Structures
1.
Amino acid sequence: MVPETPLGKNSIVDVRCEETGGRKFIVEMQMEWFPDFMQRVLLNASKAYVRQLPKGDDYKLLQPVYSLNLVNHTFEPNLDGYYHYYHLVHDIHTDKVLDGLHLVFVELPKFKAKNLTEKKMQVLWLRFLTEIDRDGADDVSQDLLDNPQTGEALEIVRESGMNDAERAAYEGFWDRVSIETTKKVSFERAIAERDAAVARADAAEAKLQQDKLQTARQMKSDGMSVESIAKYTGLSADEIENL
């Protein structure tokens, strides 16, 4: 859904979700950086970790919480990498990890795709976030257009950059597409239902004919006259003679 408010285009995206295995994920896109942002992220992830366990439940039911933060700012200018992963780890034996909180910060301005043909979703999404601006959504890489997920996101970007008249025309176009699609589906459904009804009628008629022939055979074997058999079955004399 495209925001209708004037501030909609500058909204912060904050998504909380849970996978089928129970792990919790918090995804946030931060347009502006402020010094306490990392503490805020830690607080929110900690809340999500604590609140998942009702009082009295077993601690082993706790699931890890992953906080992914996409930041449109270089907050670590002295570090080369754009990907920053924080978790609870032993200070000496780094293979010893407490699997509870996982915080990931991505500095979008630092990201540069090394291989533009790479199709991994992580790379495609980071390219989408760093290569696309609202005014240039029509001049994009074919890789991003071909992928169903980034392609759909591009449509949302295009729509979000429209003025009221453009959005009305865009929505009107898709309304007309929906109407034509509905008409086509309804027509095809009606044709299919008609064909099915004809097939059922033909099958019923064929079965009735077979029943008549079977009855006529039995009557003929019992010695009844052709005239009597024709009277009770509706078969012609030739049909009865050929049995």
2.
Amino acid sequence: MSSNEGGLDKAKLFSSKESKIATDQFNENRILGCGGQCMVYEGMFPDGKIVAVKKSKTVNEGHLEQFINGIIILS
């Protein structure tokens, strides 16, 4: 996910492959924070753009809806 209001982009969903590349395979040194259902990583794309990548810890459909709603609220 990334954001741009006052210099921040709107929320965007990235593919798993893009997220892994940006976060060095979700390297623990890139962890910015964690919550009950997700981890937030600092990511950087090849063009130098820095993003926060929110990764769900679960694939439960009920939790997935909460996860997506959390992203919408942040954007």
3.
Amino acid sequence: MAEQFQQRYQQQNQPQAHQMVKAATAVTAGGSLLVLSGLTLAGTVIALALATPLLVIFSPVLVPAAITVCLLIMGFLTSGGFGVAGISVLSWIYRYVTGKHPPGADQLDQARTKLASKAREMKDRA
């Protein structure tokens, strides 16, 4: 308890020069980041102003091309996702068949047992 009080006392009574250095560093870092963000904004506006006429002129070609590229990318990503899912399912089945007890095997065994018991009940009723 006394150590915490002493640390707080030291933090509150830091030399004024140390506090000034902290403030100057913060102002310098903040100011430089503000200048960089302003330059980035100005560059973006200038680039957009220069590129807009070209985009308007070439839009009948660029828009369908962009749509086609997006559809191709989505197709490849979907195909890859289904491939990974298929490989993981085949891996799970292999581990289950070889007896390595993959996650979820207990639930599958319970479901199989319930199905078998219900099938026997239905067979007995018929």
